[in-house]
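Methods: holo model generation. Sequences were used as deposited, without trimming of termini or removal of tags, and paired with ligand SMILES retrieved from the corresponding compound records. Each pair was processed once, and we did not select among multiple samples. The sequence and flavin-adenine dinucleotide SMILES for this entry were:
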Amino acid sequence: AVAAGRCAARIPAAGGGRGGPRPAAAPANCVLAAAARPRGGGAARGSVRGATANSSAAWLVQFYSSWCGHCIGYAPTWRALAGDVRDWAAAIRVAALDCAEEENHEVCRAYDIHFYPTFRYFKAFTKDFTTGENFKGPDRELQTVRRTMIDFLQNHTDGDRPPACPPLDPARPSDVLSLLDSRDGRYVAVLFENNSSYVGREVILDLLPYENIVVKRVLNGDKGFLEKFGVSSIPSCYLIYPNGTRGLINVGKPLRSFFSSYLKSLPDVRKKMLSLPEKPNKEENPEIVVWREFDRSKLYAADLESGLHYVLRVELAAHKSLAGAELRTLKDFVTVLAKLLPGRAPVRKLLETLQEWLANLPLDRIPYNAVLDLVNNKMRISGIFLVNHIKWVGCQGSRPEFRGYTCSLWKLFHTLTVEAGTHPEALDGTGLEADPQAVLQTIRRYVHTFFGCKECSEHFEEMAKESMDSVKTADQAILWLWKKHNLVNSRLAGHLSEDPKFPKVPWPTPDLCPACHEEIKGLHSWNEDQVLLFLKRHYGGDNLVDTYAADQGDTGEGGGPPQGREPERGLASPEKPRGDQRAESLRPPRALPPGPRLSDGSQLGLDGRLQSPSGAEGRREVEAAVPFLGMGFSSLDMSLCVVLYVASSLFLMVMYFFFRVRSKRWKVRHHRPSV
Ligand SMILES: Cc1cc2nc3c(=O)[nH]c(=O)nc-3n(C[C@H](O)[C@H](O)[C@H](O)COP(=O)(O)OP(=O)(O)OC[C@H]3O[C@@H](n4cnc5c(N)ncnc54)[C@H](O)[C@@H]3O)c2cc1C
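and the model returned the structure below.
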């Protein structure tokens, strides 16, 4: 972090989140303390809002993700930009927010961030909530971004322009001539340049925090005017000293940095004291990363579940509502997951419930909150559960910005293709059973539609277009994904996002699968039959271990161990292979005991609301229906029922005794012998 007073800021995370991807790749270089350090996801939104709302400076915010290789690759450029424009802070500031941090999920959702990195501009003095203006430049090179920052500043109206930002438009020749005679004790620098040049504006902004100097720019339209100042080439800088002497300055090269540094080093030109936010105490957000020992030859349920959590609660949740192709993609992806993903029974039951619900949805648009309610098990259906935080094991990186989500996504995808190859009957009745490409095509559509790394999805789509059609069997699908993953590995070898502890090499490495590797005439070649066998073993349910997953689910909404969860599953010993458990929990889903259905009432409550009206009104009703899902009985409700039950029993007993005593007295009174 860089000292306060610089203009780049990392929007603070809300509270000290643990376990999620961490922002060590934070491309920005200082922490903004102006925004209160919030607690809870909602407050994180407050931090972006708090920073940008009614701010006297404009903002450029990069919403990035610490698992996104392109963001990691871009981090040095962003850091350089932050340093390069730090003197512009009073007019425009740069900041970054890591959407992979759990505590920022909600804010990124509120700001409608679907892909990383996303750049948004926020004008100064914005009052109402705004998601900002997108910057989708043709390139994101430092110079391009710097220039768009200037364009953005010039887009302000006079009324909302940052007060510290001097006029960036060119001065009129008459105004410049009048400057020649002014004596206000300051230097006046006049930059002559052409219409398309940004040098003048950059120098004006560079000198923003300096006192005793004013910088103006003027265009080279009138030749006679230029001659008056002796300007023979542009850009040139004419300097009027406080004592009235003046002339063109001689800098080594007519570049922004030369002009700026010359002017900053003039006698009596000093930096003003800027009251920018204090640097917060590092102790406030300690990042404790605990390394979990793991075996590279195993597949960890914790990785698959954490990846699934991210898919369902973060990546998909970036879409407020889903319709058309997006909704179809979600339905097919959930179907494939529900039918094929091995793992702990509560997770599979959750997926089955979700799949069933989505399959029966009559609407062509749904608010994603409805899906979230089910994923979070707001209805308290017994036996369904998905961990609501991230815990990487086989996908841990040696530094927090490495690996994580994308690693788990690959593992999920490979597991799905392998399971489709080894349990083809699992897809029976879904409409996907007859097509050997079905799982691959579903993965392709997920990546294309929802994967937050846009560049990754474009590369993947290119590979799919090129050869996915050649896949004719389920085994070929397994091998297709393996080959393409290796292509990605070789493309990324040596990239900034490569974890040195997990180098990108052709996989499986000889130590994992010696039989997969051969040499033909001295050249390495793959034995694809062996590779296929290896993949089926490696990504098969028998290789899935619960280590580190066993303690998941002890916190949060819908996170408590579900009532129907088998105790032996939760207590699985470390590294215990799932072979025997699979016999029960990993058998093809069709053979499972009927999954927990939404109780008829709640099914009706949900579907009934989603069925009836259509169009905007229908959607409104659906939105309104969402809280209904949260009306499951909580433990408080249950306690109240018990208290009422006991109270009414007591009341009945009291009434009973009261009338008994009365009737006895009555009998005694009427049978008393008269004297
Ligand atoms: C669909 C997709 C496309 C991507 N495209 C890009 C991109 O264009 N640019 C970019 O920067 N990043 C991209 N990524 C991310 C990148 O591939 C890695 O996921 C990331 O760099 C983390 O790497 P990792 O070391 O965890 O290993 P990963 O490549 O994520 O692999 C995860 C695990 O899978 C196993 N594995 C490795 N290779 C194979 C294989 N060939 N077959 C089966 N299993 C294997 C290993 O156990 C490995 O640890 C993409 C990710 C996905 C899911």
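Residues 69-70, 395, 403, 406-407, 409-411, 414, 447, 455-456, 459-460, 482, 485-486, 488-489, 492, 497, 499, 502, 507 surround flavin-adenine dinucleotide (CB under 6 Å).
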